[in-house]
Amino acid sequence: MIVLFYSMLWRCLLLFALFFSNAAQSNDVNRDARIQTALTLRILKFVTWPSSAAITRTGTLHLCTVGRSPVVSALNVQVGMLYNNRPIVVHSLSQDATIVSFRDCDALYVSIPNELDQAYFLTRLAELPIVTIAEGDGFIAIGGMFQFRRLENKYIFDVSLSKARAVEIKIGAPLLSLASEVR
Amino acid sequence: MMKSRSPVTFNTLINKLTLRVVTIALLLFAVCVLIFQAWLFKQNVDDRLSVTASVLSANVTAALEFEDSEQADLVLSTLKSEPDVIRATLYDRNGRIVALYQRAEFITGRNVSPIDLPKNDLENWLDNKVQQTTKPVLLLNEQIGSIQVVASAGQFYIQWFIGLIVIIVIAFFAGWLSLINTSHVRKNIIAPISDLADAMDRVVSDEDFSVRIHSESIKEVEKLSDSFNFMLANIQRRDNTVTEQNRQLAQSNRDLTDALNEVTQAKKTADQLLLVKSKKISCAVNDARLPLQSVIRTLKTLSINSDDLKFATLITILEERVSELDYMIEQMDINKLATGVDAK
Q1: Which of B31, B32, B98, B165 has the greatest count of CB atoms below 10 A from its CB?
Q2: A90: how many CB neighbours lie within 10 A of its CB?
Q3: A83, A84, A178 member nearest B66 (Cβ)
Q4: Rounded CA gap, A86 and B249, in Å?
Q5: pTM beyond 0.95, yes or no
Q6: Is A178 in contact with B139 (Cβ distance < 8 A)?
Q7: Distance in angstroms (rounded) separating the CA atoms of residues A89 and A86
Q8: Of A84, A85, A177, which is closest to B62 when you measure between CB atoms?
Q9: CA A125-A129-A134 angle, 5° bins
Q10: How far is CA B117 from CA A105, B22, B56, B149, B150, in A?
Q11: Chain A contact for B140, CB < 8 A?
């Protein structure tokens, strides 16, 4: 009986520890997602789009997301926020969506796990004035514009200025001074 | 009792006048320049601080937005190239200090709170020797913080002091130049007047009216000299005339005296001659009277015995002639005449 009691107690403790471990992990994920979301929104404040961009045409910032991740989820709840006194409209799109669907996007957070798929996806958007952002070391290398990297306990970001210039997107100098790497 | 003032010379007066004018002009000029310099410097510092704060404000937007204090410090550290700036503080939208730059020499000694700085007017600025400006940090028309830049007035005092020294040197140099320059003018003014005074002295002391003054430097003095010369010439002409008349008068006097002497001498001679002549006449008359009286007596004697009227008539005539001769003798008064001649 006593053995059974201790066995049950041990299992309870394990379940309790497992629960808090998952909760802590979940908290970390949420924290990272919040940071990346904040960084994304702040980066966009230093970006100027060309006249062909959706924001210039519609007067609204269209923030699109592709894929599934806590950041995408966090970004999806930013609907209604104001950007330069303009409302932010968040669109959650599929990576298989037609190119026309992306013409209305001003910024795009990409969360596609496979790098090949990511590269293919970015190739389709290469001509559009869209600020592409993702987490990972190789995002700029495959045609992305901003990439977040985790360095020790904080997030840093890299910028592909050549990619931005190619689609006539201007990035503010103060932002470039904060970038870890400008390519 | 009023104190009598000793007369001053033209030289002293002109020196005083020149010095006063130059001093007043230079003082006014120096004060104006220094005030203008202070105002200009303040404006420059204001403008420069404003521009600096604006540039910093633009550069720290990302650092402020991303709450990157290190980057903000890095941006603020560019103020090392601005020697006037002693402090720059970056605040976030909640008024918290995100980054602070302070010039090394002001960190320990001078701990001015950026918030408690005085108003940005010249008086407070000069009193507190600091100047500040605050600019909002804007991102997409939204104020995400503010930046405050504080400058020291030390540079101003150095420039002001240098300006003061330069002005003093220029003032002395200008004063010296003006005195040298006025000395020439002074000579032109004083020389004719001194000549006039000297000439007047000679006229007064020596009564020399032949003195003449030559001045062509100043129109008024030239006019005065001409008038003075004209007056002297007139006086000299009159003096000459008077002298000539005196001389002629003296000559006339001498001539008259000579003539009088001659007349006197002639009169004397004439008197003597007259006396002699009178004596001779008197003798002659006397000589003539005696025979006549004898004749009368003879005739009277003869007439006694005759009734001839011719004797009586002749006697009467002869008696008349004797009477006339007596009258002549009485009139000639030879004795008196002789006495008068002797007296002379």
Answers
A1: B98
A2: 19
A3: A178
A4: 129
A5: no
A6: no
A7: 9
A8: A177
A9: 60
A10: 49, 43, 20, 11, 9
A11: yes
Helix, strand, coil percentages in chain A from 3-state DSSP, rounded to 5: 45, 25, 30
Q: Please count the other Cβ atoms lying within 10 Å of the Cβ belonging to residue B37.
A: 17
Look at strands A154-159 and A170-171 and give their pairing. Answer: unpaired
The one-digit pLDDT tens for each residue of chain B (344 residues) are 455 566 777 777 777 888 888 888 888 988 888 888 888 888 888 888 899 899 999 889 988 888 888 889 989 998 888 888 888 999 998 999 999 998 876 654 444 444 444 444 555 555 556 778 899 998 888 888 999 998 887 777 787 888 888 888 888 888 888 878 877 777 777 777 777 788 888 888 888 878 787 776 677 777 878 888 888 888 888 988 999 999 999 999 999 999 999 989 988 888 888 778 777 877 777 788 888 888 888 888 877 777 777 888 888 888 888 888 888 777 776 555 555 544 44
- Closest approach of chain B CAs to the CA of A66, in angstroms? 25
Q: Is A177 within 8 Å of B75 when comparing Cβ atoms?
A: yes
Contacts A–B by Cβ distance under 8 A: 36
Residues constituting chain A: 183
- The alpha carbon of residue B120 is apart from the nearest alpha carbon of chain A, in Å, by 30
Is there a contact between B66 and A39 if contact means CB atoms under 8 Å apart?
A: yes
Q: Residues B46, B52, B55, B61: is their CA dihedral positive or negative?
A: negative
Using beta carbons and an 8 Å cutoff, which residues of A are at the interface with B?
Answer: 39, 42, 45-46, 83-85, 172-175, 177-178
Compute CA distances B154 → B126, B149, B150, whole Å: 10, 15, 12
d(CA B38, CA B32): 10
Residue identified by tokens 């500040």 is B132
- Give A82's strand partners: A87
Closest CA to B296 of B263, B270, B318: B318
Residues 6 or more apart from B311 whose CB is under 8 A from it?
B299, B302, B303
Determine the Cα–Cα distance for residues B24 and B30; give it in Å rounded to an integer.
10
CB atoms within 10 A of CB B327: 10
**DSSP label at A48?**
E
Contact B124, B112 (CB under 8 A): no
Q: What is the ipTM of this complex?
A: 0.71
Q: Which of A100, A87, A106 minimizes the C-alpha distance to A40?
A: A106
